[in-house]
Amino acid sequence: MKFGLDLAPHHKVFGAFGIYSFTMGNIFPRFADLKNAMGVEEGLFGLGLIGAPVGTLISLTFAPPLLEKIGYRRAILVLIPILSLFYAVTSLAPNPYWFFVLLVPVGLTLGCIEIILNLEADRTEHLVGRRIMNRAHGFWSFGFFAAGLVGGVIAQWGLSPQVHLFAIIPVSIIGTLLLLGRFEPAPARTGSHADEPKFAAPTAGIMALVAVTLSAMAMEGGYMDWSVIYMHDLYNSVPFTAALAVTLGALAQAITRFFADGFVERYSPVLVSRVLLGVMTVGIVLVFYPMGEWTSLLGFALLGIGSSAIFPLAMSAAAQRTDRPAAVNVAALAQTSFVTFLVAPPVLGFIAQHWGITWSFGIGLPLVILSFAFSHVLGRKPLPHKVD
User: Fold this and answer.
1) CA distance 257 to 3
2) What is the DSSP letter of 131?
3) Which of 145, 259, 308, 379 has its CA 20 to 30 A from that of 252?
């Protein structure tokens, strides 16, 4: 049964990334409210946040064969609305321990959606004959921006996080049916996920790429998880202004991703990455040395720009390596880098609790230096894009 908008294949991919990120993004502007309702410090709240990356890592490792058996169309039409339900249930957690437990199924669902959408973006890229991966992730950031804006307005109205997130469920269902009702997976390329290893050990070359991505992944996770709490703790910002921290970061990231492919092709991965790392450094400084609400908001926007395209560039570089099959190197980079998302929430929360929340972002400065030192491994020439 077909329903919804009749969109071009790449537009369906863009729509899928957008409704997915909108569904997941509504909880982030409410983190300060959830933490205050639990009555805990940043350290314990950060431990609770680990539940989502734990679930995601499990599904990234074991879900691909199951998803192929179920079928990507059937799976994606169910998973995105289910994600909205899981997030709404998570908002009912009375303490960080239940928060962790309820975030595990959220993470399992996130991992499955990530597998489907990133694979579909890659297949559609080859189907239509032009790059769409960064633009697809740009639409993810646009969806996250919209969620932050909606979440900030609803928080300003005074509605509880629970009412807010349960109200998102029908929005997610309608958006999924409208944008993906006519979704059909693009033709498979050679091989399948079933051929990929469940765990791929990183080589020295892959660890160098991991070093490049550390600052971007840590700072992206930092502004997503902690920027609203930062604004609340430092400035006692009203809910809408606090939500602007994550909203502006997502918008800046979206715009940068939308145009990133052209700059990479015109210049080089290493040059683009170094410019982004420079922008990220300025953002970290503005957040680490708070001078006012609007300078901090500018800092979060610069963090969004700086973290926008470094990980996709590293994934492309991993796929281009010739020491092992591309699928093995990509899996090794993805799984190893994802450990950052496992350890970042509790580490940043521990730092915030004991040294102040500004230090949760100040830790990014040595990570940027590390990333800059290894950025040469991304390659000085643009990576060719071939259509099979």
Assistant:
1) 30
2) -
3) 379
